Amino acid sequence: MVVYATEDELLRTGLSMLLKIKDSDIRIATLKQGAQAVDRGIHIGGAFSVTVPMVSLFYGGFMDIDVEDPTRAGKDMFVLSKGHAVAAMASVYADLGYFDPSILVNSRSVESILNGHPGPLLPGVHVATGPLGQGIAVAQGFAMAGKRAPEYNVFCITGDGELQEGVVWEAIMHAPQKRLDNLCMIVDKNEGQLDNHAQLIFSMDNLPGQIESFGWRVLDIDGTSYSAVTAALGSFVNLPREGKPTAIVCNTKKGFGSFSESLNRHKVTLAQDVYQRELGFQVAQREARVAEYLEFREDLIAAGKENLAAVLGDRAGSLNLSIKTGSKEVGPVIRKPRSGRVPERKKSIGYNPEELPVYAGDSSSAAGDVIQSCMSVFARDPKVVSVDADLGSTSGLERGVAGVDQHRGINIGIAESNMMCVGEAYAALGCNVWVSTFCPFFDWKVLRRIAVGAQERRESMADPGGWLSEGHGLDITFLATAPNFETKTNGATHMGNDDIIVFGGIAGLNIIDVSCPNQLVSIMRWIMEGNRGLNYVRIMRGPSGVVYPGGVEFTYGKAYRIRGREKSRVTLVSSGRGVHEALAAAELLGGKGVTVAVYDMPSFDRETMAELLEQDGLTVIAEQNNGFIWHNTGNMLLQTGGAVSLKNCLAINVNNPDGSYHYIHSATYDQLKARFGLQPEQMAETVLRRLHR
User: Fold this and answer.
1) Global pTM?
2) Contact partners, residue 85, CB within 8 Å, separation at least 6
3) Of 223, 243, 365, 601, which residue is 20 to 30 A from 563 by alpha carbon distance?
4) Total number of domains constituting the chain
5) Residues 642 and 508 both lie in one domain
């Protein structure tokens, strides 16, 4: 073979042999990782089936990465969408030097940063994955950013099982529309999943054709062959892509590369005898692969092709393999792991505050118009990005941001899950991101996964040994339009009365309910200061009057007394448009000789609420939703062990009479107020009855 093959063929053969030796190293490290996990558990089937594509990608010379600073702009990015294969990825990352190999020991434990699915606790990992299908959508967002300077490629490994998730196809449909030819999706088509490791529950026999039909360039290959996988990756990196994203469908099988059939399953607990037997076979296979390569190397030298042997020796070094002259050994190179933190990011948005709108006390403005005006100022900073889902006309984001830079005023179309994942990608790159849709249209599962990743980033920044530095948190504002009674006659599925409690249960998400145009400006200014994390900002759909003066300062977790004095006979607490109704009710009660204070609580204020409950007067919490403030008040009392008499506290909201939650139906705004006793006249009458009881 050495005599008759071309030099290119010999180099490809030699490289495949070296990759197989590295394959053995990664499989052995992965196997040991499972045996040393706190529960001896490992998702071995998917980890082993993805090893050939992953080793090819990271060691085949196809990626431009910076291990010391994985966040460096312009470097290629990788997303492991099939998070179950984290063990294989961790073995690769430890070998490359992203972190010390000691991290592979005692994984999945409370002390470890290596979990059962990847997340930003682990150096080099940009997003948390595991909930299936979302990783490819985030990778698509990275690729969108990577089409502008500095340009880079994005690689994402998915599994055929997760391609049964809908969000995958939202991304697959969208990527060709954006001509994301810098995106390479590698599909580990191992024909198995959790409940049936030998067969997909949902057949994907025509997967290449299905992906191609959406406008992708598809390569259907043998995913167990290093020559086939490296050839496919080479074609992505080196050949013209003609504006099409590339999908490499790697046909393999669950647990490929294992000797024991018991390791073909989705997840296993490694019994000691199975582990020892499998480890022995893997070690023996490595020795055989080393012998095969060394014999090939000797044949090259004997044929006078010392130059090719030298080239392969250099390539071995890039694979962290050491070939000792005169030795029958190809040993691993222990690379010094990266140390320290990545550079800090400056997150504050630069703008001229004098250019922001100020609304007169007798005016009325729609929140979408306020946002458009503000974004036309804020978006001059290139870190500001907005993503709408076919509701840009409601949010005002696209009009404002795209008016400055249409590449940053993005409209995904009717695909909210995809929208949220794209927004997360830009936030992970350091942008101040705003994504928007109707209140109940945000995807809870996507939102929760984003929040998990945001928490892991905060933990890494707070940990003295963490890899992320200040400014590497996620800054995402979920702009929720049409909350409370704002949706009006659109139907129960569109009504935003329950979202505030549902999403209020997501850890790390700030809930803000806006009541006034000037207040909205102040909230946007607060967010543009940077490092504000995840915010769920609910805006009124129709025009509203002005409550606050221009230039008011917003503080999260603070209530604002906007009428009356402290310790009034009655205190009305509300948020959103309910504040305007509370002010009107206060005027009516004032006419009856009742002293009334009105508090706007755009975000829950524990301290103020505790003070209100301790005073002698009546506290009325009036809300045009299922009672977010009331719900949080109850939680506060349970946590603090406090108690309050019902005679001093009253809730008026859309709950059923027994306090249970429900959904509300279509009606005009006035009809909804009347239905739930939230008209000013009704609130005033309810208060008077309670006072005279």
Assistant:
1) 0.96
2) 43, 46, 47, 50, 54, 157, 159, 188
3) 365
4) 3
5) no
